[in-house]
Design goal:
Helices cover 44% and strands 19% of the residues. It has a six-stranded mixed β-sheet with strand order 3-4-5-9-7-10, sandwiched between helices. Helix 6 packs across helix 9 and helix 7 packs across helix 8. The longest helix is centred in the middle third of the chain and has 21 residues. The protein is α/β, with parallel strands linked by helices and 255 residues long. Helix 2 links the parallel strand 1 and strand 2. The two termini are 32 Å apart. It comes from Lepraria neglecta.
Length: 255
């Protein structure tokens, strides 16, 4: 679970963190992550499956007063298509809308996946795009539209809010369980590949820390560049992997 890996990184920066969990039995595990950390950790039990509206998400935003929101929750393929849509689409979109509507929230980072797009990335080959489409229309047929809707909503509403807000879609390939080696490929990567969960957490933390980061999509795989260098390069160069997507269409649909 990415939450377990990113929580200590956030707390090590002396930040205050509210971790939202569904199952009360998870609380001791999450609470233990705050031991001997300079940051302050609070745990809020709330089922994301029950979050259907902006107002419901807003109540959590209002009670926790965050500056940054990280949405790394997901159904994990459990519970069927209904649960995937409830968490990966509906709950995420509700939190996107609530966050964008809250002036004190200046960053929203969602962990999506590399194939969440409607059009071929200009730097992909036709073969890569075909394989991506086959996965999206096959084993990911419920996951794909859920993640795509959340990504497009975040993109549109971030653009509408304008400067001072960064809506970031971090888009890893297949996740592996390793802690991470601190070496990645970030930005315009190949269409397929894997990445260590620990490195996803490190990249997410790096993006949250970056002062100059703007709204963007960033693909992520294992690679040869340090996390720090990759984040710095993508932020300074304004890398954005939504190139080729219909942003105007997103604006019409979601704003």
């Amino acid at each position: 679970m990415l939450k377990i890996l990113v929580t200590p990184l956030i707390l090590s920066r002396s930040w205050q963190l509210t971790s939202v969990i569904r199952d009360p039995t998870q609380k001791p595990t999450i609470t233990a992550l705050g031991k001997d950390q300079p940051g302050k950790l609070e745990v809020l039990v709330s089922s994301l499956e029950e979050i259907k509206t902006q107002a419901q998400a807003q109540s959590i935003i209002d009670s926790t007063s965050p500056n940054y929101v990280v949405f790394s929750a997901g159904s994990g393929g459990k519970g069927g298509p209904e649960r995937t849509l409830a968490i990966d689409r509906d709950a995420c979109i509700a939190f996107v809308r609530a966050s964008v509507a809250t002036p004190s929230v200046t960053k929203f980072l969602v962990v999506s996946y590399i194939g969440s797009r409607k059009s071929k990335a200009p730097w992909w080959s036709e073969g890569e795009w075909k394989a991506c489409q086959e996965a999206n229309n096959g084993v990911l047929k419920s996951y794909y539209p859920a993640k795509l809707a959340a990504d497009e909503c975040l993109t549109a509403l971030s653009a509408e809010r304008g400067t001072g807000f960064a809506g970031i879609s971090l888009r890893p390939g297949s996740l592996t369980e390793q802690e991470g080696e601190g070496k990645v490929a970030l930005g315009q990567t190949a269409a397929r590949g894997s990445v260590r969960r620990g490195d996803v957490a490190r990249v997410a933390m790096g993006l949250l820390e970056s002062e100059g980061v703007k709204s963007c999509w960033l693909d992520l795989l294992d690679g040869g560049e340090t996390v720090e260098g990759a984040v710095r390069r993508c932020v300074s160069e304004g890398i954005d992997c939504k190139e080729g997507e219909d942003v105007e269409g997103m604006m019409k649909e979601w704003t």
